[in-house]
Amino acid sequence: MDTATDAQNYIALLEVPEEKVAVLPGASADLTSVTFCIREEDHTLGNSLRWAIMQNPQVDFCGYSIPHPSEAKMNIRIQTTDQTNAVDAMDKGIDDLKSVCQLMKARLQQRLGQGDYARTS
Amino acid sequence: MIAEVPTMAIDMVLFNENTSVLADEFFAHRLGLVPLVSTSVDQFKYSRDCTCGEYCKECSVEFTLHVKCTEPGTRVVHSSELISSNKDVVPVVDDNGRGVILLKLSKGQEINVHCVAKKGVAKEHAKWSPCAAVGFEYDPHNNLKHLDYWFEKGIKEEWPLSKNAEEETENDPSAPFDYNAEPTTFYFNVETIGSLDPQAVVIKATRVLQEKLGALQMALEEDQHPDTNANMDEADPWV
C-alpha cells in the first residue's frame, strides 16, 4: 500500500477533539437568533444558565434541551432584540451567573464565619 | 451537590484471601460504598489525569484489611479496621468509633484485601456522592399560593408545617392577596454521609458551577476570536 493512502487512513482514524461549544446551523446572519451546542454539560449548567440569560431584558427567548440522554450535549437557544446579539447575551448570562455564585458563596462564608447559627446535637 | 462534588471512594479491590460467606464482587461493592473522609480531596488528581501508569499516591490512597476469626462465635468486621496509607483519608466513623459493619466472620474464616481509593464524582458512580439527601423549599406558609393543597376537613389540620416555617410569618388570611409577591428566601437541606461537612459541600458545589461557567466562557471566546494556535490542529503533518 502506498504511503499516501496510509496517511489518509491514519488521518481518518485520528480522533478529532470536539469543541466545547459550537453554533448549530440555522443561526441568523446578525447573530440575534443562535442555537449553541455545548458538550459535556447537562441540566446542572443548562437550567441555571437559561435562567441567568432570561434575566436580561434584551433577550426575547431562551430555552435549552438535551436532545438525547446518551449524548453529552446540551443545546441552548437564544433570541435577542437587535440591540445586542446572542453571543453577547450568552457572555452576559455567564458573567451574571458567576456573580450570583460569587455573592452567594461570599455571603455564606461570611455568615459561617460569624458562627451564630443553630446546631443540632 | 449530589452529582458533581468530588470525594474519595474505594474503586479497586484485590482479594488475597476471602473465605467469608460474601462473594468477592459483593464485598468489593460494599467496600466501594464505604464513606471516606474527603476533606483533602483537592490535593488529589483524577486518576485519568495522572501521569502514573495505574495508580500512585498523587491520585489514590491504598487500604488494607486483614482479619481472621480464630475464636468461636462471630467476628464483626467494621470499616474502621481498614488501614489507610494516608492519614488524611480514613473511613468515616460514627460516635461509637467503629464505622459501618463490612461483614461478619465465623471461626476459621478470613478476609485479606488490598483496596485502592480514587477521586471521583457521583455522575460516574453514586458511591462518590458526598450527600445522602438534598432538598429545598420556599414559602413554608404557602403565602404565595403556589401550592393548592388537597384536603378533606381543613388544610391546617392535615398539612403539618415544616421546621422552616419558624423563620417566616404567615400572611393575614383576611388581607388582600399580593399577586406581585415573589419568593425571596430558599431553604436548602443538605445531609451528607460524613465524607465532607454540609458547609463544604455547598461551597464546593458553587465552585464547581463557577468552574463550568469559566470553561464555557473561555470556549466561547476562543470560538469568537480563533487564535493562531487553533490552526495547528488543521496543519497536515505529512507536508
From TrEMBL, chain A:
A GO MF term: DNA binding
GO cellular component, one term: RNA polymerase III complex
Compartments where located: Nucleus
Keywords assigned by UniProt, alphabetized: DNA-directed RNA polymerase, Nucleus, Transcription
UniProt keyword Transcription, yes or no: yes
Residues covered by the DNA-directed RNA polymerase RBP11-like dimerisation domain: 34-105
A GO BP entry: transcription by RNA polymerase III
InterPro entries documented for this protein: RBP11-like, RBP11-like_dimer, RNA_pol_Rpb11_13-16kDa_CS, RNAP_AC19, Rpo11-like
Translocase is among the record's keywords: no
PROSITE patterns: RNA_POL_L_13KD
Family to which the UniProt record says this protein belongs: Belongs to the archaeal Rpo11/eukaryotic RPB11/RPC19 RNA polymerase subunit family.
Protein name, UniProt field: DNA-directed RNA polymerases I and III subunit RPAC2
UniProtKB/TrEMBL annotation, chain B:
Pfam families per record: RNA_pol_A_bac (PF01000), RNA_pol_L (PF01193)
Keyword Nucleus belongs to the record: yes
Cellular component terms per the entry's GO annotation: RNA polymerase II, core complex
Annotated stretches, region: Disordered: 220-239
GO-annotated molecular function: DNA-directed RNA polymerase activity; protein dimerization activity
Principal location class: nucleus
GO biological process, one term: transcription by RNA polymerase II
Alphabetically ordered keywords of this record: DNA-directed RNA polymerase, Nucleus, Transcription
Superkingdom: Eukaryota
Regions that span the bilayer: none
Intracellular or extracellular location(s): Nucleus
Domain DNA-directed RNA polymerase RpoA/D/Rpb3-type: 1-219
Keyword Nucleus: yes
Family: Belongs to the archaeal Rpo3/eukaryotic RPB3 RNA polymerase subunit family.
Protein name: DNA-directed RNA polymerase II subunit RPB3
Annotated organism of origin: Coemansia biformis
